[in-house]
Write a structure and sequence with these properties.
Blueprint lengths: L12 E4 L3 H12 L5 E4 L10 E4 L1 H9 L3 H7 E3 L2 E5 L5 E6 L1 H7 L3 E4 H9 L7 E3 L3 E6 L4 E5 L4 E4 L1 E4 L6 H7 L5 E11 L9 E6 L3 E8 L2 E9 L8 H12 L6 H7 L14 E7 L6 E2 L2 E3 L2 H4 L8 H16 L7 H30 L4 H12 L3 H13 L3
Parallel strand pairs: 1-2, 1-12, 2-8, 5-14, 12-19
Antiparallel strand pairs: 3-7, 4-7, 5-6, 9-10, 10-11, 13-16, 13-17, 14-15, 15-16, 18-19
Helix pairs in contact: 1-5, 1-10, 2-10, 10-11
Length: 395
């Protein structure tokens, strides 16, 4: 029996996960004539998420999607970066303008705004909310999928873009251990007047971190602390616990702590205080047969790097590019090309984010003092060189 070879608009593609990676991929594929199905387990996007940094590697993809103007309407330009010590004394301030002149602007955007922009790039009928996968059964030339609503579908390719706790990854690759980095974090909104638009402020303590990230008319505060894995964080005790952990820090931190609302009263409110532990994910394989992982599902990066969204969009762009040059028969070769183009860059960025996290969150007070002294002498030129490697690498 002759197997039908499909390509372009005839190729049957399922994208599991309608977040940044999944929507970017689906939008790029639709632009190229494909018609991918996208399923997202959340029943609606709501207002979940805080401020993201979108570097040129991500924002330039929006140019190709014809949505760059929408980005400008919904984001702040990242203009300056200030590092302060435990007491709130500035250790160094960096101007991001020269990097912007060389490579393009970096933006600070509220995650729901970015999702809204990306959602506009796909057909409404191709997105199904409140749905994910329960079974994936691979054959030599296709994949049978069962969804949570009981329906089934057959595809040439299944893309796992469903985040660090990926269901696709569990079903196809088995249980993959996440790596905990002795950090936990909280986020919430504070008075925008505490910071200047376009300027990021970070207070570095010993094993503690407080950052302010403006976007449009909002100001996100992100706190992090070093704690053992599995440390409980009961909601009804969270407010007092967080205040106690950070109440000896100076600068803007006392004002920030006063801004916190009681999360026990907002457990069902997505605008309430968010909490999560810091894990990342390194996998030797991102593909198996006709299934491929992108974004956090395959290469979750610590938030300390501030590049997770951009890297997810990059991976989506590379995968979309490779899918335009293959068909259902030679699909696995296209997936191999995707991996070969992304592997070194992802590994490099992931290692850098781990090193930066260890540097910023050092627990020993003496080492923290040495860290602070080194930041004082970390010049504008060295900062630019650090980011230039990320900004100039080919994808």
């Amino acid at each position: 029996m002759t197997t039908t070879i499909r390509y372009g608009s005839d190729m049957r593609i399922l994208v599991v996960g309608g977040g940044i990676a999944g929507l970017t991929l689906a939008g790029l594929l639709e632009q190229r004539g494909f018609s991918p199905d996208v399923v997202e387990k959340s029943s609606n996007y709501g207002g979940l998420g805080y401020t993201l940094s979108l570097w040129p590697a991500g924002s330039n993809i929006l140019k190709g999607l014809g949505k760059y103007d929408e980005l400008l309407d919904n984001a702040d330009q990242f203009e300056a970066y200030h590092v302060l010590d435990h007491d709130g004394t500035q250790l160094h301030g960096y101007d991001m303008g020269s990097l912007a002149d060389e490579y393009g602007e970096t933006y600070l955007i509220w995650r729901p705004n970015l999702v809204d922009v990306l959602q506009e790039t796909i057909s409404e009928e191709n997105l199904q909310m409140g749905t994910t996968v329960t079974e994936i059964d691979q054959h030599s030339d296709e994949v049978d999928v069962t969804f949570t609503d009981g329906t089934m579908g057959t595809y040439d390719l299944v893309v796992g873009a469903d985040g660090i706790h990926s269901k696709v990854r569990d079903l196809v690759f088995g249980e993959v251990e996440l790596t905990y980095h002795d950090m936990t974090g909280w986020a919430f909104w504070v008075d925008p007047s505490l910071a200047t638009s376009g300027e990021v402020q970070e207070h570095w303590g010993a094993g503690r971190f407080v950052g302010l990230y403006p976007t449009e008319d909002k100001l996100a505060c992100f706190l992090a602390a070093t704690v053992p894995e599995g440390t409980p964080d009961p909601v009804d005790e969270r407010l007092d616990r967080v205040r106690e952990m950070f109440d000896d820090m100076g600068g803007l931190v006392p004002d920030i702590l006063d801004e916190m609302d009681d999360p026990a009263d907002e457990m069902d409110d997505p605008a309430g205080m968010w909490h999560d532990d810091f894990y990342d994910l390194h996998m030797d394989e991102w593909t198996k047969g006709r299934v491929v992982l992108i974004g956090d599902a395959g290469h979750a990066i610590l938030p300390t790097g501030g590049v997770g969204a951009s890297m997810a969009m990059e991976s989506a762009a590379v995968l979309a590019d490779e899918l335009t040059r293959t068909d259902s028969k030679y699909l696995e070769q296209g997936l191999e090309h995707y991996v070969s183009r992304r592997r070194d860059r992802v590994d490099t960025v992931q290692k850098k984010s781990r090193r930066l996290g260890s540097f910023v969150m050092v627990q020993n007070h003496l080492l923290a003092e040495l860290r602070d002294k080194s930041v004082k002498f970390y010049s504008q030129e060295r900062m630019e060189e650090y980011f230039r490697d990320f900004l100039s690498s080919e994808i």
